[in-house]
Amino acid sequence: MPGLSPVHVIGGGLAGTEAAWQLARRGVPAVLHEMRPVRATEAHLGADLAELVCSNSFRSDDAERNAVGLLHAEMRRCGSLIMRAADRCKLPAGGALAVDRIGFSQNVEAALAAEPLVEIRREEIAGLPPCEWDEVIIATGPLTSAALAAAIAELTGTAALAFFDAIAPIVHRDTIDLDRAWFQSRYDKPGPGGGAADYINCPLDREQYEEFVAALLAGEKTEFREWEKSTPYFEGCLPIEIMAARGPQTLRWGPMKPVGLRDPRTGQRPHAIVQLRQDNALGTLYNMVGFQTKLRHGEQTRIFRRIPGLERAEFARLGGLHRNTFLNSPRLLDGRLRLKAMPRLRFAGQITGVEGYVESAAIGLLAGRFAAAARQGHEIVPPPRTTALGALLAHITGDADSASFQPMNVNFGLFPPLQPDPGRKAERKPLLSARALADLDVWLGPVDGGAQFAK
User: Fold this and answer.
1) Which of 323, 338, 363 is the last residue of a domain?
2) Residue 419 neighbours by CB under 8 Å, 6+ apart
3) Most Cβ neighbours (<10 Å): which of 14, 56, 118, 447?
């Protein structure tokens, strides 16, 4: 449709890049504003679009029995740029979809740079967007600039909620002692990027585990500033030392659980395990799965080298802690992600209170589609609640209790129950997934004319 005014997308993370892509795929011009490198953040290392600042994993790719895997499948059917880039840059990771983080970001940026309907501007939007921008998607993520966050808080009349997110360390592969550690995926399960031996496993016996937990608890941690002390953690990304403080066995039932693994030297299951997952295409870097931390850097090196197999580990990146900000979306946003107090503004990504790379990109995908339809003079109905996209959207725009709203990963608990219920728990997830994909195809028919926009 010639002569359309652009939609402005603020933020070049996973949600913003996906939103810009969806706009362009529908013939609507987009201006993508990214403040890096003009202004840095506490967590990003560079200026690339769609930089992965924490894990390099998009989590499970099992579309039949895992809700995030189902979300992967739905986004692929919707022509997602983020999923296309992830599939092109996938790494061995058992049943998970992990990516080469540098290659992934480069793939996303190259696609948008080559798209004639997308203009990329490197600049900070300090405050509310200009009034003449009548259709805006704010996808500034958990590290929204202070000026914009303050403007949003003033506009909505309510303070944004906040939590801390922690980053796991990355280890150089050639410094891991494979005479003590070994390659194996849990239950030898193959995944989309490789075979059944994608993780490096470092075993701990009971004494080593107890000494490690004691060291975590005693280690010197990052001190919070006064204004940060009341900020809650997100339960899905707790620092490892916070988990350890909840009880001596907490880590053995969390990131250090040994189930599905056997030490080839003994033939026995270890008392506890530390897993490392490939982090780049060359296989030279591995990240410590679930080991996000607020320990000071010197303490991380000292304590993590107590782990068998990591005694001589060299770290490409140590863990860190940053403050994340998100909206009380059930109170502030409507069903098409528009701010009730100023409908020309839509929000997408982690700032809406979804948690996870894929969930953030999924909300960006929907925001882009909603904004494209509005720019073309019509509206599309949201995806059915029976789909992963629809369930996630419904949760953040009304289903969740605004009084206790916290970030949420996609999960089958957000889906309407099956009618009739099959009774057996093992049968529910495949049936929920089959229903979701069938309903998504029906929704895509009138929305996309049956096309999948897989360019």
Assistant:
1) 323
2) none
3) 14
What six digits make up the tokens of 145? 């600039």
**In terms of Cα–Cα distance, which of 243, 21, 15, 299 is closest to 138?**
15
Q: Are 351 and 326 in contact (CB under 8 A)?
A: yes
Distance CA 221, CA 163 (A): 17
User: What distance in Å separates the CA atoms of residue 19 and residue 32, rounded to the nearest whole number?
Assistant: 9
- pLDDT at position 453, please? 36
Count Cα neighbours of 310 within 13 Å in the Cβ-side half-sphere.
Answer: 27
Angle between helices 357-375 and 81-88 (to 10 degrees): 140
d(CA 181, CA 119): 48
Residue with tokens 């990109």, as numbered in its chain: 361
Q: What's the CATH number where 231 sits?
A: 2.40.30.260
The answer to whether the beta carbons of residues 27 and 377 sit under 8 Å apart is: no
- pLDDT of residue 75 exceeding 90, the answer is yes
Q: Give pLDDT tens digits for 12-27.
A: 999 999 999 999 999 9
- Quick one: 256 and 229 in the same domain? yes
> What is the value of pTM for the model shown?
0.83
Beta bridge partners, 119, equal: 31
CA–CA separation, 340 vs 332, rounded Å? 6
- Residue 351 burial (10 A CB sphere; 0-12, 13-18, 19+): buried
Per the structure, the complete domain to which residue 298 belongs is given by 166-323
- Which amino acid is residue 214, in one-letter code? A
Give the amino acid at 188.
D
Maximum distance among all Cα pairs of the chain, rounded to whole angstroms: 70
Which tens digit of pLDDT belongs to each residue from 330-360?
999 999 999 999 999 999 999 999 989 999 9
Please name every residue paired with 285 in a beta bridge, in sequence order, or none if there are none. Answer: 172
Angle between helical axes of 14-25 and 101-113 (0-180°, round to 10): 30
Amino acid making up residue 140: T
Please identify, among 323, 340, 372, the residue that sits at the C-terminal boundary of a domain: 323
Three-state DSSP at 304 gives helix
